[in-house]
Amino acid sequence: MAGFPQLRLRRLRRTERLRALVRESRVDVGDLIYPMFVVEGKGIKQEISSMPGIFRFSPDQLDAEIEEVARLKIPAVLLFGIPEHRDEVGSSAYDPEGVVQQAVQKIKKLAPQLLVVTDVCLCEYTSHGHCGIVVGDQIDNDQSLPLLAKTALSHAEAGADIVAPSDMMDGRVKAIRESLDKNGFQHIPILSYAAKYASAFYGPFREAAESAPQFGDRRSYQMDYHNVREALREIEQDINEGADIIMVKPALAYLDVIRQARNTFNCPLAAYNVSGEYAMVKAAAKEDWLDERKAVSEVLTAIKRAGADIIITYHAKDFARWLQST
Known about the structure:
Radius of gyration: 20 Å
Number of helices: 11
Helix content: 25-40%
Number of domains: 1
CATH class: Alpha Beta
Order of helices and strands: HEEEHEHEEEHEHEHHEHEHHEH
Number of strands: 12
Low-confidence stretches: none
CATH topology: TIM Barrel
Strand content: 15-25%
CATH superfamily: Aldolase class I
């Protein structure tokens, strides 16, 4: 054909081996963190109705789950705690015998090589369900900081490898860094939920963690989903305060934010493939509206392609199994 180009891009798509050879983005099990819910009590293993395949475990029931995570070579877990006692100041969050602290100790005994990341927030532990201290009808930023720092320190003392503040209070990274350093934990990294948006995709998580606010919402401290430049300011502030890893949450509706963060900042970048994103894929797969394995691979690859180094995802175990089976 006259004028047809010598370059034919389809040549490198002809077979699977050729496609794999020139593949630009790959997701490996080593990129993943698996979120887990630990609940106070004994003998508890409860499936979360809106998140098929995800359970709440009491610390004494963690053995099989942690053994499977380790066998699948998933490098890290992220722990969320559900206490029996809630109060106005979230005291169970920083109780040395709290449920997360117990779970950290148990996991480090079961699988010392597994990295244990702990979510640092007050929402699961407060009677009002907000991420900080409530004064009147407002969330008091500065009164919340000492309690968040106290929580992070208690996690480090229990043996956590990384602490991850998710509250979106201004200045909490600095407060946590200073507390850790003062108490001999200079080596503990902070994974900051730096750009955490107020999102409709958290619904199943709030069922799992029993953490829905009892009044109002979280839009006064979590980010407005219309904004990107603000996210870059949030991330820059957290880096300046001592964050070692930054996070964008959620992931799928915020791939542009992940890309801009990757282009702007030269530090490890995590993205959270959140509960609502997981639930949508599971629900569609149950109805045979899509191929779950292919959809999950595409979702995780999109997050990696956007620029994330680390992906926090409830799909981690399934994805690891699929990779082992190929």
